[in-house]
Structures are given as structure tokens and as C-alpha cells.
Specification:
nine-stranded mixed beta sheet; 10 helices; 34 strands; 33% strand
């Protein structure tokens, strides 16, 4: 019996050794650098954005004041504003629907001060978006609209105040307030203060009387010093993604829940005081400070192409406009919008753009008609799209018109596909576009993401994302553009409406998720044509893509190992004149649930090293759970 046991033990050990040796046998990836397959779309990787998760207000748009126009709720309460009664002061605040600084803002906050003096001021304070980020030795640019009932009210004091201690961090005075609505600019300059978000803005007076306030605004330094601009840190994060385009103003945000709540671009241009704001479909109000021109300037700042989505007569609560005469005003509105974007300064809407501060027209290649119209149960999209298509092509024949779902009455230039999946689903579908008809229409993967992790993706999601990107990159002759969504999320409690978002932030800090860094790697290391290749002996969770950069004479190899074990691989480049050394960029983690957070933002980041190529072969072992980019120069 003992001999049989020994024999079985030896046999099992031999089986285990054989299995181990087989597992360690490298996969063979053969790349033919002299066999281009197809051109890579130069606009493959870009950004999709909308007002969700406090992406604009409380996010990218740098405004620090929340509910800056003092909009009241259905009980006439003014959200995010609190009454201040210092010392013996007595006052009350109310929502005044009868007076405001403009037709767009016909309401305001009314402050009635019964008692106040130099030692007992009264006023209001704003909490910001989960606090206000204050840094040392920084100038904050602000303004407010105000009027008062009498000269007795005196000057207005504006200050940044620390929540816990009540310490004043910066202070200024607004004098000469009159009985007529007027804008009053101011600057708040901090000294050697502590960096924090636990601060608020206070607006107070030291005399009895009545004061009306509207459009109270405060900005930190902005990206490229844009007036009414964007946060520097978030713009830098986006710039690092090397985006080729920006799809805006958004998905559901374009449509609104109801037709009157759609994104009306004409109400988002010009002075802020002339923008009435509107409800977001994600259960909060949009300031529209980031309006049509600001979107275009965002594209300008990051050297992106604008991909403009126009409202197409469908809103999400199954409200639609029938094709024909009913739709004509909406089609004309889109034509006006295109003229605002691309028209010369001597056209009607081009002149308005010039008056808004941008003399030169913007270049536009793509227009998307609607958003996710496959949800429209009326079946009206086919006719609506055709009506927009014909009208736009008649005036702008070179524009590419994107359909949000396949249509039959007319052939679209591009169709927008959306995918929100688990990592396993993406692993199993990387060949999705391999057999797509190359005669068209082209594909825009306008929204996609691996939905695992909250508020931002974990590493398992990053692996799913990278796997899917290898398939899109391989098919980037038919896929002209692709964009992860959602792009941004405010990580404070109450800031998120959709789980798994690319970049997280609070009022002070931001961080990139593992999926963010996968996006950075794929967009940074991509050539202008795909190459012929073949793979043998790889595991089921090993994916790759290969592109060549003719101008710089480089090869870019993307590798994904989503398995829990390392993947040895020999990469062969038969006949290719390669440099002996290449650069390797690795993004990896110990498990699929590992991630980055607002407090630990760089747990998972790309790391650079080098690889050697010997006799036309790269002998390499990929770590478990890893995403890699290899850059190799051609001699």
C-alpha cells in the first residue's frame, strides 16, 4: 500500500511540475511592423461630459458660491445660504420674487436688518460646495449685484471665514451701494493662512435697513486665467489624457426631463446676469455659468475638437416633438447654434459670439443630433434625425452628422454606441467591431465604462476598460471617436448620482482612478496605423493592441493581463530594425478591488522602466493584474 501511495504521490508531483512548466511557457506574440492593416483615427480618444455628479457646478467650473443667484425652493427657502446675526444684531432673510437684477433673474435675496452696528453685524453666509477651498497668499476674484432701500445701510463687508474658529481669512468692503441694481466687483486676498475647505463666504452690513442681493460670485485663480473659468487641477488632469475632442453639453443634460428643461444654448451665452439657469435632470439646478462659449473655450484651452450635440426634440420623460412643421423651430435653433460656433463675425450669430468675446469662429467637424434616442418609445427619431440631417447638410455640407441610434430613412455619417458593462463582459467582447462593415457608417463610442467601484473605478474596472480599448484601438479605422463616461464626480456625500466615474474630487483636491491612468496610457501611446499580428498560447484574459507611429518611427504595444497569475510572453518583430532598448510603462495592483481615493490618490499610478530587445524578440513577463504600454523606436 505504501508503495502505491508513493507512486501516486510521485505521479501527482510530476503532473503538477508538468502543469507548472506548461503554464510558464511563454505566449508567442508576432508583430509585423512592415504590414500596416488600417489607419488609426486621429480623434480616437476624447472626453464626454455633462452636468452629473456636480461635474460643472461644484466641479470643473471654478465658481465657489453655491446657489449664487439665491434661487428659492417651493417653500421660498434659499438653499445654501444662512442668516448671520452677530452680537446683538437682529435680521431676517427671505426669497423676494418681485425684484432682481435682470429679466433672466427677476428674483433675489432680501435681507431686512432691524438692529446692527459696528460690533454686531448682520447678513448671510454661503457654505459653498461642501466647503470653500482657501489657500495661502491667493487672490479670489468676486462680484455681487446689490441694491438697498436707503443710504443708512452703509457699506457691505465681504469676507472669507474659517468655519471652526470664526477667524477672518480675507476681507474687503463694497461701498456706494445705491437703490438701483448694480454689479460690484471685489477681491479677497489671503495671507499666510492654512489650506483647507472648512470655510465660508460672509456678506454683512453694520447698520439697519433693507438690502437685496443677487448673483454673488467668487472665483479662485483659473486655468489660463480665464474669466469665469475652470479649476486648474481638474483641467490639468484632463490635459494629461491627451484628449482629441470634447462631446458636449452632455447626454441627459442636453435633453432634460421635460422639453422646457432642455439645454437651451441661447440662454447660456452673454453676461451671467442674463442667464436664467435651468434644472438638471440629475436633481439639482445648473447655474449655466459653463455655457456654450465656455465649452468652446474649454476645447480651445486643451486643443480639442468640439463635438457639438444639438437638442433634437426628445426629452427623457417620453416627451417628443413630431417631425415636420412642429420640429422646424428646433431645427432652426440648431442652425443658429452652428452659426454661433462657426460663423464669421459678419453673420447674425457669429456677430453675437464676437460680442461675447470671441471674434474668430471655431472649427467644427461633428454634430450629434440628440442623445440616446433609442429610449424614445414614439419611434419618431428616424424622421427627426432625417429632418436635422437634411437642414444641416444643406448649409454645412462638410459636417459629419452623428445619429444616436441606427436609422433607416437616411444613412447617417456616424452612429453613437453606448456601453456600460462589467469587466467580464468587456473581456468577452473585445472582438465586437472586428467584423463591422467598413463601408460605414462610422462608429462613435460616445459613452462607455466598466461599472465596478464607487465613486471611482477599482483596478478590476481598469482591466475591463483596458481590454475594451484594445478592441477599439484595433478597430480604430471604423471607430472614429470614443469617450469614457461619466468623466467627473464630487466625492462628498450627496455629490454622486452615478457610480463609477473617472476622476474624483472635493473642493480642494482631485485624483485619478486606476481607469483614468489606463486612459492616459492608451491615449498617450498610440500611433497612426494598426499592424498585422498574431498570438499563440496566451491566457484567456490576455489582450493586446499594436500601432505604429510613422512620423516618429515608433511602435506602441499595449498589453493587458487581467489574470491572477503572471503571463510570460515572447514578442517577436520579424525583420523589423528595432532599437535595443524600449520604454515600459506599467499600471498594476495586487487585486481587482484595489483603487485610489481622495485621501490616497496615488496608490495605483503608472511606473516607467525599460525593456531590452534581443535578436528581434522581447522576452517579457507581465505581472498579474497589469496594464502595460511598450514604446520601441525603429532604427
Amino acid at each position: 500500500m505504501s508503495g502505491k501511495i508513493f507512486s501516486c504521490t510521485v505521479a501527482l508531483a510530476n503532473c503538477f511540475l508538468t502543469a507548472t512548466l506548461l503554464a510558464q511557457s511563454p505566449a508567442i506574440l508576432t508583430i509585423h511592423a512592415d504590414q500596416p492593416v488600417a489607419k488609426v483615427s486621429p480623434t480616437l480618444y476624447g472626453l464626454m461630459t455633462e452636468e452629473i455628479n456636480y461635474s460643472y457646478d461644484g466641479g470643473l467650473y471654478a465658481e465657489m458660491v453655491s446657489n449664487r443667484v439665491f434661487r428659492g425652493d417651493n417653500r421660498s427657502r434659499v438653499r445654501n445660504w444662512i442668516l448671520v446675526e452677530n452680537g446683538a444684531a437682529q435680521a431676517k432673510m427671505s426669497y423676494d420674487q418681485k425684484t432682481g437684477p435682470s429679466e433672466a433673474l427677476p428674483f433675489s435675496l432680501r435681507l431686512d436688518v432691524a438692529e446692527a452696528d459696528a460690533g454686531s453685524s448682520a447678513g448671510v453666509l454661503n457654505e459653498g460646495y461642501w466647503g470653500m477651498a482657501v489657500r495661502p497668499n491667493t487672490a479670489y476674484t468676486g462680484s455681487l449685484y446689490a441694491k438697498k432701500d436707503s443710504a443708512a445701510v452703509g457699506p457691505i463687508t465681504v469676507s472669507l471665514v474659517q468655519n471652526q474658529s470664526g477667524k477672518v481669512l480675507a476681507i474687503t468692503t463694497v461701498s456706494s451701494v445705491t437703490s438701483e441694481w448694480k454689479q460690484y466687483p471685489f477681491t479677497l486676498k489671503t495671507g499666510a493662512v492654512e489650506t483647507s475647505t472648512a470655510n465660508h463666504l460672509a456678506i454683512t452690513v453694520a447698520h439697519p435697513g433693507t438690502l437685496w442681493l443677487s448673483l454673488v460670485s467668487l472665483f479662485p485663480p483659473t486655468y489660463r486665467n480665464r474669466v469665469n473659468g475652470n479649476r486648474i487641477d481638474l483641467m490639468e488632469k484632463l490635459a494629461a489624457m491627451h484628449p482629441a475632442f470634447l462631446r458636449f453639453p452632455g447626454g441627459n443634460y442636453l435633453e432634460g426631463d421635460h422639453i422646457p428643461e432642455r439645454y437651451e444654448w441661447k440662454k447660456t451665452i452673454g453676461p451671467l446676469v442674463d442667464r436664467p439657469t435651468h434644472p438638471s435632470p440629475w436633481r439639482y439646478h445648473s447655474s449655466d455659468g459653463l455655457g456654450l462659449l465656455e465649452f468652446l473655450e474649454w476645447c480651445e484651452d486643451l486643443h480639442m475638437q468640439p463635438v457639438l450635440a444639438v437638442y433634437a426634440g426628445y426629452s427623457m420623460m417620453q416627451e417628443h416633438v413630431n417631425p415636420g412643421s412642429e420640429l422646424d423651430p428646433y431645427v432652426q435653433d440648431a442652425l443658429d447654434e452652428l452659426e454661433y460656433v462657426t460663423g464669421a463675425a459678419n453673420t447674425k450669430w457669429g456677430a453675437i459670439r464676437a460680442a461675447n468675446g470671441h471674434l474668430e469662429p471655431f472649427h467644427l467637424n461633428y454634430v450629434e443630433v440628440g442623445n440616446e434616442d433609442f429610449f424614445d418609445k414614439s419611434g419618431s427619431y428616424d424622421g427627426r434625425y432625417a429632418q436635422f440631417y437634411k437642414a444641416i447638410k444643406a448649409k454645412y455640407p462638410d459636417l459629419q452628422i452623428i445619429a444616436t441610434t441606427p436609422v433607416k430613412s437616411i444613412r447617417p455619417d456616424v452612429v453613437d454606441d453606448h456601453y456600460y458593462r462589467r469587466a467580464t463582459e468587456f473581456f468577452q467582447d473585445t472582438t465586437h467591431y472586428d467584423k463591422t462593415d467598413r463601408s460605414g457608417p462610422k462608429i462613435f463610442v460616445g459613452e462607455w465604462a466598466t461599472r465596478e467601484g464607487s465613486p471611482t473605478p477599482n483596478f478590476g474596472a481598469a482591466l475591463g476598460d483596458a481590454a475594451w480599448m484594445t478592441g477599439m484601438e484595433r478597430n480604430s479605422d471604423i471607430i472614429v471617436m470614443a469617450a469614457y463616461a461619466p468623466l467627473l464626480v464630487n466625492v462628498n456625500p450627496g455629490g454622486m448620482q452615478w457610480e463609477t466615474d473617472l476622476i474624483g474630487y472635493d473642493a480642494l483636491r482631485c485624483y485619478g482612478s486606476p481607469s483614468y491612468y489606463a486612459q492616459v496610457m492608451f491615449a498617450k501611446y498610440v500611433g497612426n496605423e494598426t499592424l498585422g499580428s498574431s498570438i499563440e498560447g496566451a491566457g484567456s484574459k490576455f489582450l493586446y493592441s499594436i500601432t505604429k507611429d510613422d512620423a516618429n518611427k515608433r511602435l506602441y504595444l499595449k498589453l493587458v493581463n487581467a489574470a491572477s497569475t503572471p503571463q510570460p510572453i515572447d514578442v517577436k518583430f520579424p525583420g523589423a530594425p528595432l532599437a535595443a532598448k524600449g520604454m515600459l510603462v506599467t499600471l498594476s495592483a495586487s487585486g481587482t478591488q484595489a483603487t485610489n481615493t481622495i485621501d490616497n490618490p496615488e496608490s495605483i499610478v503608472p511606473k516607467e522602466s525599460s525593456v531590452r530587445i534581443s535578436d528581434g524578440t522581447l522576452h517579457h513577463t507581465m505581472p498579474a493584474y497589469s496594464i502595460q504600454a511598450v514604446q520601441i523606436d525603429l532604427k
